[in-house]
UniProtKB/TrEMBL annotation, chain A:
PANTHER family: CHLOROPLAST 50S RIBOSOMAL PROTEIN L22-RELATED, LARGE RIBOSOMAL SUBUNIT PROTEIN UL22M. The keyword Mitochondrion applies. Belongs to the universal ribosomal protein uL22 family. This is Large ribosomal subunit protein uL22m. InterPro entries: Ribosomal_uL22 (IPR001063), Ribosomal_uL22_bac/org-type (IPR047867), Ribosomal_uL22_sf (IPR036394). It is found in: Mitochondrion. GO terms for biological process: translation. Keywords: Mitochondrion, Ribonucleoprotein, Ribosomal protein, Transit peptide. It comes from the Eukaryota. One of its GO terms (cellular component) is mitochondrial large ribosomal subunit.
Automatic annotation (TrEMBL), chain B:
Its main location: mitochondrion. It comes from Tichodroma muraria. It is found in: Mitochondrion. The keyword Transmembrane does not apply. The gene is Mrpl32. Component of the mitochondrial large ribosomal subunit (mt-LSU). The mitochondrial ribosome (mitoribosome) is a large ribonucleoprotein complex responsible for the synthesis of proteins inside mitochondria. PANTHER family: 39S RIBOSOMAL PROTEIN L32, MITOCHONDRIAL, LARGE RIBOSOMAL SUBUNIT PROTEIN BL32M. One of its GO terms (molecular function) is structural constituent of ribosome. Belongs to the bacterial ribosomal protein bL32 family. This is Large ribosomal subunit protein bL32m. GO terms for cellular component: mitochondrial large ribosomal subunit. Signal peptide: none annotated.
Length: 210, 185
């Protein structure tokens, strides 16, 4: 004998597939409360990176290892070139957050100041909202740059000549993960390459035969 | 433009006709004090000038060493587009990546980060601010430029009296407690 819910409860039961936990905004019941936290000037669209903070996993079973906290943060339309910003992003990839802040503080580049602000904001967010216990126990899992909107302008040369210059902007994305930074990979030696080669030779088989 | 000619001789007449013809065709621009340089298009264009020179310059063209017409031959220009793989190899070469700095320490006074061979930024800013306030007091006391006295200056904070060592010196008062890092003098 099935317990048959009636009315609104039955309709909600039917349509439960439209409300997976992934779409639930973190820490709130109404689905519309967090939509207006996006910045102005982006025509109302919330970027994919900002949405990654909203996923909520089901509670872990008692035997599972603890899932480390992940914090996604980004800054859009920074007045800097994406190629120049990439060098800084590559510098801090894989470092602990303290080391990254130290390196950025003494870097002479313009983007270093911006990235430092982004990291401090992300650290603050982690402690306040994402249940991170120690603010130093974070490391940078991913740090990427993206191309922002470009604008073309006229650049005057001598003798009435002109060129067209583009004013470039970039985005910066960072993902902080709780825990100590992973140990760096040992560089590939000749011995490793030889081992791989021998393994490839051993994997060869005969095909289309008896 | 009105040109008056009074029954010249036949040779002079022929010469005048030739000059007039050149003026009409625009091949003699130097007459009325205008610019004599050949004008070209206004866009930035490399290589030879696009305006064909007149017949008068054909004689001196061979005397000039490679004129603008031959300029295309000896200017370096890329032959093929550099692929993104080649570009990436060049841009991501370890020599172009930023090196990590290993000379960062912690300042023992304030606990901020500092480079080993550089003064701590926080402590320096702190001292600079205090110096600025002392200088403002000095400015108030002096009242104008070129009034610096010929004696030494002593800075005294709240609750401090000038000792017998500070007999002939100028005293600057600061209305706060002596900071822990300020030298007793």
């Amino acid at each position: 004998l099935l317990a048959f819910p009636s009315g609104a409860a039955w309709a909600r039961g039917l349509l439960s597939w439209t409300r997976p936990e992934r779409w639930l905004a973190s820490g709130s019941l109404s689905p519309l409360s967090c939509i207006h936290t996006s910045t102005s000037q982006n025509s109302g669209k919330i970027g994919k990176w900002e949405k990654k903070n909203r996923i909520v996993y089901p509670p872990q079973l008692p035997g599972e290892p603890r899932r480390p906290a992940e914090i996604y943060h980004c800054r859009r339309e920074i007045k800097y070139s994406k190629d120049k910003m990439w060098y800084l992003a590559k510098l801090i990839k894989g470092m602990s957050i303290d080391q990254a802040l130290a390196q950025l503080e003494f870097s002479d580049k313009k983007g270093a100041k911006v990235i430092k602000e982004v990291l401090l904001e992300a650290q603050e967010m982690a402690v306040r909202k994402h249940n991170v216990e120690f603010k130093s126990n974070l490391h940078i899992a991913e740090s990427q740059t993206g191309r922002g909107r470009y604008v073309k302008r006229v650049r005057c040369h001598g003798k009435g000549m002109f060129g067209i210059m583009k004013i470039s902007r970039c985005h910066y994305f960072v993902k902080l993960v709780e825990g100590p930074p992973p140990p760096p990979e040992p560089p590939r030696t000749g011995f490793d390459q030889a081992k791989e080669y021998v393994q490839q030779l051993r994997n060869r088989t005969l095909v289309h035969t008896l | 433009v009105l040109v008056v000619v009074r029954s010249p001789l036949p040779r002079l007449r022929a010469l005048l006709q030739r000059c007039w013809g050149r003026l009409e065709r625009g091949l003699w621009p130097g007459v009325f004090g205008g610019q004599s340089t050949p004008w070209g298009p206004a866009l930035a264009v490399q290589g030879p000038a696009l305006v064909p020179r007149g017949m008068d310059d054909a004689g001196e063209g061979s005397a000039e060493a490679p004129s603008l017409r031959e300029g295309v031959m000896w200017m370096a220009a890329p032959k093929q587009r550099r692929t993104i793989e080649v570009n990436r190899c060049r841009r991501r070469n370890p020599s172009k990546l930023i090196e990590i700095k290993r000379n960062i320490d912690v300042c023992p006074e304030c606990g901020n980060l500092k480079q080993k061979h550089v003064l701590c930024g926080y402590c320096y800013a702190k001292v600079k601010e205090e110096t600025r306030l002392i200088r403002m007091e000095i400015h108030k006391k002096e009242g104008g430029p070129f009034n610096a006295p010929t004696v030494e200056t002593v800075v005294l904070y709240e609750g401090e009296k000038p000792t017998e060592k500070d007999e002939g010196k100028r005293i600057i008062e600061r209305a706060r407690k002596r900071p822990s890092w300020f030298v007793q003098n």
